[in-house]
Amino acid sequence: MPATLEDILQSHRTGRAVVMGILNVTPDSFSDGGAFLSPAPAIAHAQTMVAAGADVIDIGAESTRPGSDRVTAEQQIARLRDILSAVAKLGAIVSIDTTRAAVAAFALQAGAMIINDISAGRDDPGMFALAGESRVGVVLMHMAGQPKTMQIDPHYDDVVTEVRAFLAERLATAEAAGLPRERLIVDPGIGFGKRLEHNVALLAGLGELVTLGRPVLVGPSRKRFIGELTSAQDMADRLPGSLAACLAARRRGASILRVHDIAATVQALKVAGAVDQAGPN
Ligand code: HH2
Q: How many other β-carbons are positioned within 10 Å of the β-carbon of residue 112?
């Protein structure tokens, strides 16, 4: 059974692993750009992900890969129009990956129940107000700078402490704007203004983010740091590294995994979960 929104928002307490499948309705996403721009393949791909065990389908209409250009709210809505409501009928929770309140409002009308805002409410002053009026979940992600320039010489003195402090501040700001803490999810933003050593340190230090008391989401799937650690330059070759990153994150307390490869991730989580449950660490 796919998780309900309540299951997802309680996943840090119950220990449930939530799998979020990625659906990029974009021409230029780093791994699957162009593959799902038109409705039929996009809906079919969402169906396949739900059948493989995805609890959530995270739909994005703007690529945020390093160096990407912005996409207006109107363009995002045009890309989503014939896809989102069909995906919302598949039985999984729909999450909208956008930083624009107008796009989120359109998606909520069409059945989305989570707003995945990689700017954590900093891009659009209307985002927290909209989320506060609706009974939705909201992902607050850490990003240093903007996608266009974020990989130009990122620097931290202590990446885990700084990302934790950022997320604590965004949780407080969201709450002050009327969003109950119980509806918030935090994410260290793997690959968003981070070098290899920052990404690895953040995965290793996820326990620090767990102490914020909210579910932790991570999205390592097929990202560049896997290619930097291994010889997997081609995205299609990064599944083993993606699974290893998910299991390492899970062991450290992440409860929501944002991934491209659902069947493989569900299988890996089931096996690792059975072993973890059966014996002491
Ligand atoms: N990563 C990407 C996009 N959205 N949202 C959250 N919460 N966490 C992430 O790590 C995250 C995210 C980038 O990956 P992808 O969607 O595959 O690519 P693109 O941004 O090029 O569409």
A: 30
